[in-house]
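ok so for the tutorial part 2 we go from a plain amino acid sequence to predicted structure tokens. step 1 is just haveing the sequence, like this:
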Amino acid sequence: MARPIRRAAPVTSTTGRDGMASYNAAMQHNEGDSVSAALRRRIHEAIAAAGGWIAFDRFMAMALYEPGLGYYSRDSRKFGSLPSSGSDFVTAPELSPLFGRALARQVAQALTAAGSGAVWEFGAGSGALAAQLLESLGEAVQCYTIVELSGSLRERQRERLAAFGDRVRWVESLPGTLDGVLVGNEVIDAMPVQLLHFDGQTWWERGVAAHGDSFIWADRPTALRPPVDGVFVPGTVTEIHPQARAFVATLAERLQRGAAFFIDYGFPEAEYYLPARHGGTLMCHRAHRADADPLTDIGEKDITAHVDFTGIALAAQDAGLDVIGYTTQAHFLMNCGLLEMLRGADLRSTANAQKLLTEHEMGELFKVIGLARGIALDPIGFARGDRTHTL
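step 2 — the prediction. this is what the tokens look like for a chain of 391 residues:
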């Protein structure tokens, strides 16, 4: 039997909106009303068919990826540096082209070690990173394959990358074997997570039930547990990441010769499951504002959770990959020469690039993990500041 839990009120943070941003947000809301209503109906139907309750990972998958209705499946702008653009959040490639140029140095080294000209990108977003890598790597890339589930994002990527011709291709599933270099920026954080709630004595799986036209939290007994036997305070809500681990395991099974680099925000499990982080890391993003209530404005905002990098490393190792490095984004980019690239840059370019490095922006929270099989590689991105020992 599920027990209903009152939905928490939204908590807003980050930057406020200007007048134009508010107007754009209102317009997008009106245009998306019918789509959002259809998505809510679809989720209500799924809950009814499942007996009145669905696990949060299923809810999150529908909210983000339901064909034609989910956040990443609908035709709306998501990536941009300012809310006035109608975007919801900014990623590193949109913030500065130096992100892709620095990453390209690591990719080039790994391509040489693998004897390959193939690059695979997962969840290419606006196509900004693909363009930066293709421009920087030149003829070293013979085939750039984008694995993208969103039809609307694929079309935007095609427009942005048209100049690179048939060197770029799109697929929705992976072949049986892979060689080359795999990259993913802010991909793992958008993979559906399961929620666990600890009441001081018992662990429950937190899912979603219907309440009239709305949705509420509801808990069910579960044998699931966090991956650590730490101290958990009563009221703790946290995430576990079976889908992210399965994704990495699948890549590991297919990668025969090459390397993979994933950049995302997160922690090793010893930090992820600290008692102080008793509210978990689940967060929503819309119009460059953040809130902690995924049960409202469904399909109109992003839903993410921080990455458990220990879980990623263990899944990779269990499937036969080597962990070749783990460090902060700041260390990784500096190791790859970003500071040298800034010499002679104008003030605006310098300021944007600094956001990739500074501790209070993206430099510390974002991490990079490197995985490899079948190649001899001393990766430049982890030359200084490697934190693999913390995983």
